[in-house]
Design a protein that fits this description.
The complex is a heterodimer of chains A (about 110) and B (about 110). Chain A is built from no helices and 11 strands. Chain A is an all-beta fold and about 110 residues long. In chain A, strands 2, 4, 5, 6, 9, 10 and 11 form a 7-stranded mixed sheet that branches. The termini of chain A are far apart. Chain B is mainly β and about 110 residues long. In chain B, a hairpin with a 4-residue loop joins strand 7 and strand 8. Chain B is globular, with a radius of gyration of 13 Å. Classes of the chains: A mainly beta (about 110), B mainly beta (about 110).
């Protein structure tokens, strides 16, 4: 039973397109995150949600928007995709921000 | 905001040797310091963590030390094995704030 699952695992799309990545957690956690891992393997926080409320919005382009229909889901929508958006995107969840974060398997986004 | 620096960026050791990875953090209010291991093509997974009220924690071949005064913490792996080869990330957070990760260390253990 997967704790944090995200779909799709791979996503190849053309510049200018709009795409979404879905994330679900069945751990009952209150906090969910999106991280971006670039080609240098740096893990950078993009967003975090606590009980469906956005509590931290990092300085990411407004083409990226998190959407949380309920506590168990945090989807990432990206408008007008650019080449530089190519990366692996990880969803994660945590009981709060101060304990272990559990990661999804990642979504490798390639913009061509 | 919090900033976490991690060194070295790459580390190569012979099987059986020890490996040490060091991190420094900027926010003195940070109180939770986990270490994650990420194998090639996989997700990051927690291997050990420490809170600010503890100076050292050990789990079999892995140990973490924390120096709050100097604002640095370290991961120690003893008797390294080829399966320890991976990218290791340190992180820091405070209260219900987000986890901020270091830049990662690629550890290679040669047989």
């Amino acid at each position: 039973d997967t704790a944090v699952s995200q779909t799709p695992k791979y996503l190849v799309t053309q510049m200018g397109n709009d795409k979404s990545i879905k994330c679900e957690q069945n751990l009952g956690h209150d906090t969910m995150y999106w991280y971006k891992q670039d080609s240098k393997k740096f893990l950078k926080i993009m967003f975090s949600y606590n009980n469906k409320e956005l509590i931290i919005n990092e300085t990411v382009p407004n083409r990226f928007s998190p959407k949380s229909p309920d506590k168990a889901h945090l989807n990432l929508h990206i408008n007008s995709l650019e080449l530089g958006d190519s990366a692996v995107y990880f969803c994660a969840s945590s009981p709060d921000g101060n304990t272990e974060a559990f990661f999804g398997q990642g979504t490798r986004l390639t913009v061509v | 905001g919090e900033n976490v620096e991690q060194h070295p960026s790459t580390l190569s050791v012979q099987e059986g040797d020890s490996a040490v990875i060091k991190c420094t953090y900027s926010d003195s209010a940070s109180n939770y310091f986990p270490w994650y291991k990420q194998e090639l093509g996989k997700r990051p997974q927690l291997i050990i963590d420490i809170r600010s009220n503890v100076g050292e924690k050990k789990d079999q071949r892995i140990a973490v030390t924390l120096n709050k005064t100097a604002k640095h913490f370290s991961l120690h792996i003893t008797e390294t094995q080829p399966e320890d080869s991976a990218v290791y990330f340190c992180a820091a957070s405070k209260w219900t704030d987000k986890l901020i990760f270091g830049t990662g260390t690629r550890l290679q253990v040669f047989p």
